[in-house]
Amino acid sequence: MRMKSCVVTVLVLCSLLLFASASVAEVPPGWEKVGDGGLVDGIPTPPYSEKPARNNSYAWSMGTLTCSDDLYLYVGAYRNFPHGSFFGPMSPFPIDTSLFGDSLPPEETWDLGAVEIMRKNITDDGPWEVVPLTPYVGAGDLSGNQGFRKMYSYKDVLYAGTMNMKMASQGWDGVPRLLAISNCDLSQQPLDVTPPVDSLELEENKAYSYRGMVEHNGIFYVAYEYGVFSSIDPSSGWSRLSDEGREGYITDLVSFQGSLWAVTSDGEDGWRLFRWEPTPTPVGNPVLNGSWGDATPGLKQAVHVGANGFVYDDHLYIGTLNGGFPLYDVDLLNADITVLLERMLKVFVPSYLYRFDGEEWETVMGNGIGLKGPGFGVPSNVYLWTQGFHDGDLYISTFDYRSMFYAIDWEGIELFPTGQNVLVDTLKSLVSVHIRAMCEMAGIELPAVPSLNDIVHAFINHGTPVGFDLFRSEDGVNFEPVMQDGFGDTMQYGGRTMVTTRENCKDILWLGTSNPGNGCQVWRYEKIPLATETEGFFPDPDGIRYTVSVTPCSEEDNGEVSGDIRETLVDVASLLAGPATEDDSAFFELELVASEDICLIEICVYPDEADNEWLPDTQPNLWWHDGEVWNELAVTWTDLGEGQWKACVELPEESWGSLFGAALDDSIFESDGIPGGEDDDDDHDGGSGCNIGSFAPVILILLLPLGLLWNRIS
Fold first, then answer.
1. Which of 422, 545, 573, 619 is a good FRET partner for 14, with 20 to 30 A between their CA atoms?
2. What value does the mean pLDDT of the chain take?
3. What is the torsional sign of CA 226, 165, 421, 402?
4. Closest residue by Cα to residue 251 from 349, 376, 149
C-alpha cells in the first residue's frame, strides 16, 4: 500500500508541470570550462594497474588553499559512481553492465575503494595534478573509501572528508576519514585528523560520510550522519556534541543567527531541522552537554527525504533532495526489495526551496508555476544539489535524473527475460506504466504500441534539454536560468559543488559537475562586460533590419549602456566633394546612453540583393569626418546565402561623436575636392557641420551603406 501511494504521489507531482519547450543553449557568457573528462589520470594503487580520469564521476567536493602567493583549487572526486558502487559488490540488484552500452567507463577499469584529490594552481592557471594520498586512503588500506564528499577551509587549512562503506565482506570498516591539507608540497602527505568514530557502532552495508562542515563562533564543527564534533585545532583532538533530541541522519550543518543548526534526513518522514542548545560541560568531559531542539517547520513534506542548508541575505535556506539512494539508513544487501524500490521511486519528486528569517518560513520555490514550480518548473530537477555566491547573487544547481535514463540501453532492457532480475523488471514497469502515463498527461505523442525506447526517448527529449540546470537570483526569491543543458553534455546530470574566490578584486565562481559517463568537469565564471544590442528597422517597419551593439568598459555597467540610430538633421553637403543623393548615399546619427561608460560600438545591417542591385559587386566601406577630413573604416561583409548579406563595422573610439558616411562613389569623400579641405587655399572657419565633434559629444553621426538607411541631403 505504501508503494502504491508513493507512485501516485510521483504521478501527481510530475503532472503538475508540463515541460517547457525544448531549446539547446550555448555556453552562457563568462563561463569557461577549465577541467574535463575527470580532470587527470591518477596514480595507480595495487591491485589496479591504471587509474583513468574518466572514473572520477563527481567533482564531489571543492576547496581552496593559499601557499605563498599562489591560490590552489582542490577537487575531491567520487569515483566509479554509480557503476562501481551499485553494480559491484555493494549492489542489491546485480545487473549486466552491457545494458549501459558504452555510456559508462569499461568495467575492467573500475577501481573500487580508490579515491582521488586533484588540484590546480589557479593563480598561474597551472595544469591539473594529483595529490598523493597513500597510505592514508585508497585501495591499499581496504577502508571502503568511495570519495571525498566535503571540503572546508578553517584557519588556513583545507579539510577533506570521505564517504566510506561498512562491508565486512570487503574488509571495509565504514569509518569516514577526515584529512587536513596545510601546505602545497606534494611530497608531504595530508594529515589524518579523523574524529573518534567507533566502527563497532556502525551498521553493516551502510555508508557514512562527512557532509556537514562549518565554522561557528570561531569553532570548527564537522558531522557524519550520526555525530557532530567540534575543535579549534583538529590536529590536537575533538569534542563530541550530545546527540540528545536529534533525529534522523545529518545531511548538513549551518551557522545562522548565532546558533548551530543541523539538517537531518529520514527516508520515511522527510527532512528535519534541529538547533543546538548547549549547557555547561564539566572540564574533561569528552561529550559536550546540550540538546538539539526540533525547529522543523510544518510546511515541509515527508516526500522530500533530504535537504541541504545554507545562509543567504540573512535567511536560512533549505533546498530539498527527493529520493536518492537509501545508503544511509537501509542495509542495502539485506533490505526488503519492496522497501528499496519504494524509496527509489521517490526520486521522481521535484525539489522545493524554503527559507527562514528566524521567525517565519516561506516557500520560495515549489508552490507556484513556471520558475516558482517544483524543480524550478522542471519536474526532473529532483535535487537542489549545491549553491554558490558571486557578486552578491545566489546560484543554485540541480540534479536532472533524465541523464540516467539517457545512459541505459532500453532495447536491451526490453529483450531481457522477465523474472530474472528485480531491477530490470522494475525499470520495465517504471517506463511502460508510469513514464508512459506522464507522457500521455503531457500530451506527448507515442506510437500505438510503443517500445520502452520509444517512451524513454519521447520523455527525455520533451521540454528542457537533458542535463543539470543552473539558476541565479539577485534577491534570493526570484530566479532566472543561467543554463539548462548540463553545459551541453547529456550525461552531466548534476552541478555538484561551488566555491568563490577573488581575483583582481573580482569574484570568480567555480563549479564542479557530476558526470558518470564522461568524467567530471570544472567550470569557471567571471562576470564580463556584456553588449546591449538594439534591433530595429529603418526608416520604417518595412525597412532594413539593423543592430547596434554597445559594450560597456566594466561588467558593473552591463545593461546600463545602449545606443540606437536616428535620422540626422545635419547639413552634410558642404563636407562632400561631389553631389550625393538618397539613391547612392545616406547619412545618420547614433544616440548613445551613458557614453562615458562605453568601450565598444558595433553596427550591423542586413541587406538583400533583391532590394539592392549593387550587391554583391559593390560593398561600400564606412567613412567618418574628424572635423577636417574624411577617414575610411573597413566594413566586413558576410554572405549569409540566398541573397542575404550582413555588413558590420566596429567604430573606433576617436570617431565617436563624428559624422559618418558611405556611398557607391567614394570620391565624394576626397579631401582635395571639399571646400575647406587640405588643398583649399581659402580661409575657412569650419562652417556648419565642421564642428560636429565638439557640439555633439553624445551623438554619433553615421552613414550606413547606401540604400539601407537614408535621409534627404541638403
1. 422
2. 84
3. positive
4. 149
Residue 699 has pLDDT above 50, yes or no: no
CA pseudo-torsion sign 549, 555, 558, 560: negative
Q: Are residues 587 and 683 in the same domain?
A: yes
In this structure, the answer to whether residues 574 and 507 fall within a common structural domain is no
Lowest pLDDT segment from 47-61, 212-226, 363-377, 581-595? 581-595
Q: Which amino acid is at 444?
A: I
> Grid coordinates 537542489 are at which residue?
384
For 436, the grid coordinates are 508512459
Q: Are residues 401 and 284 in the same domain?
A: yes
Which H or E run includes 146? strand 145-154
On whether both 548 and 495 belong to a single domain, the answer is no
pLDDT value at residue 672: 64
**Which of 131-140, 266-275, 481-490 holds the top average pLDDT?**
481-490
pLDDT digits (tens, 9 = 90+) for 574-590: 899 888 887 788 888 88
Q: What is the mean pLDDT of residues 633-642?
A: 96
φ/ψ (deg, to 5) at 693: -60, -35
Q: Is 612 helix (H, G, I), strand (E, B) or coil?
A: coil
Same structural domain, 604 and 500: no
Q: How far apart are CA 177 and CA 175, in angstroms?
A: 6
Q: Is residue 709 part of a domain?
A: no
Residues 506 and 618 in one domain: no
Residue 592 and residue 509 share a domain: no
Q: How many domains does the chain have?
A: 2
